[in-house]
Amino acid sequence: MSNPVVHITNLNLWYRQKAVLRDLNWIIYPSDNWLVCGESGSGKTSLAKTIAGLIKANGNIEINFNPEAALPPVIHYVANWYQFKDLEGQSNFYYQQRYNKQSAEVTTTVRAELEDYGKKQKLSFNDALQTVKQLGFSDLLDSTLIQLSSGEHKKLQLVKAVWLAPQMLILDQPYNGLDKQSRENLNILLNAVSAKGTQLILISNDVEIPSCMDRFAEIKNGKLIEISAGERISNPTNDFTPKSIPVFLSESPTPTFSGSVIKMTNVNISYGDKRVLTNINWIVEPGEKWLLQGSNGSGKSTLLSLVCGDHPQAYSNDFSLFGYKRGTGESIWDIKRRIGLISPELHWYFDPSATVWQSVASGFYDSSGLFCEPGSTRSGQVNELLEYFGLREHSKVLMNELPLGKQRLALLARTLIKNPELLILDEPCQGLDQQQTQHFNRLVDGLCKNGTTLIYVGHFESQLPDCIEKKILLENGAVKSAEILLERA
């Protein structure tokens, strides 16, 4: 048998006095392509980063590259989370900055980012263009990084990885933020790069994966356990008892307006000569539950930025929120106090140095981090919600010290804490395992029985709450269709 490419023996990793990996052993032979699954927080990302040399752990990791291979003798790790810097070297951005013209001017473009990466890795830019085209990224080459959505940032990461074609490629949650067609295109690309000699390790709980994946494992109790292809797609054991929704969330949100929640008439958004939204007509009435869908780059994020009061071009359009036409005297805080929002972009720009408790409590004030004491009643509500989401033991932990899945749960709790009139959930379960996704969607169904208005963004019908009634589909910045899915009782 050939010598292993990676040979791990007795790997141990502790974090905050908790064992993440325990005496883990793993042998990866040439041509093996592994998929590693497991619950959120089980240690998948920690293992991947350890193999890539990004974090240290106790134990032995032996790496043996093929000196005769034409591919670069490196392990390239693609993180679930993408971070970038502007032209001044800054990486700390705030959410609304995405729509600030001045911020766009000091942020590099996709083209410049790829050209710089190609120079550093001694790659031909022309070789990247086919991958760019296959991932549906060609129209964004001249867009700035700060203007990209989460799915578009993921595509940028993947273009670089496939372009580099290293001897080993580790992809951490590569499908997060990608629409169905983009996922299919990615699988085609990964099959092709594997056929050329790149070994793959995918960290993912997704069902649809490249056909080249031939070995499967699960991280459980700190150890890596090899499983069959069938075991990885079996339904997870739901070992928790459904909890009652906190009492303060079982009450109907107090209406503070009359008329439609959202009313858009021929709304258009442009950046220079580039039209992002075209003649959008959309009315959302109180208590309606909408599904917003569209491929990556279809305009969903821009549409939601209007609803949340973050986009400055709202004032130049015929657009009303909560019964008031934008620009007639209401402040952005008048709007935000009625809205609960989570999105991948908000997660990116959220203050990572706040504790879990502070992060959830900040939802009362629509701030990133907590800057005032919420009082005893609100503090009790924070504790109730932390208990509901299984985060009570992490209440004093900093957000950036939690696994991403649990960070997302904390931000979901923050979104719900003020029992908002309008709930906007933009890919809320991104990074959650199947069990957490089911649990959260049950909570959404429970909340929406009480009259909450909902806009839910999700690519896959199998991962949606049952309460969805209507669907609006965007394509190239325009409404392709709007339909009723479920008649209201």
Number of strands: 19
Distance from first to last alpha carbon = 65 Å
Radius of gyration: 23 Å
Uncertain spans, ≥5 residues at pLDDT below 50? Answer: 86-97, 235-240
CATH 4th-level superfamily of the largest domain: P-loop containing nucleotide triphosphate hydrolases
Strand content: 15-25%
Name the shape in a single word: globular
Structural class computed from helices and strand pairing: alpha/beta
CATH class of the largest domain: Alpha Beta
Second CATH tier, the architecture of the largest domain: 3-Layer(aba) Sandwich
Summed up, the domain count is 2
Largest sheet: 6 strands, mixed
Q: Into which percent range does the helicity of residues fall?
A: 25-40%
Provide the spatial order of strands within the biggest beta sheet. Answer: 5-6-7-3-8-9
The number of helical segments is 14
CATH topological fold name of the largest domain: Rossmann fold
Protein model, in words:
With 489 residues, this protein is α/β, with parallel strands linked by helices. It has 14 helices and 19 strands. It has helices at 44-51, 101-105, 110-121, 125-134, 150-164, 180-195, 229-232, 300-307, 332-336, 344-349, 356-361, 375-388, 404-416, 434-447, and strands spanning 6-15, 18-28, 34-37, 58-63, 75-78, 168-172, 199-203, 215-220, 223-227, 262-271, 274-284, 289-294, 318-321, 324-325, 339-342, 422-426, 453-457, 470-475, 478-484. A 6-stranded mixed beta sheet has the order 5-6-7-3-8-9, sandwiched between helices. A 6-stranded mixed beta sheet has the order 15-16-17-12-18-19, with helices on both faces. Helix 4 (125-134) crosses helix 5. The longest helix is centred in the middle third of the chain and has 16 residues, at 180-195. The protein is globular, with a radius of gyration of 23 Å. Residues 86-97 and 235-240 have low confidence and may be disordered.
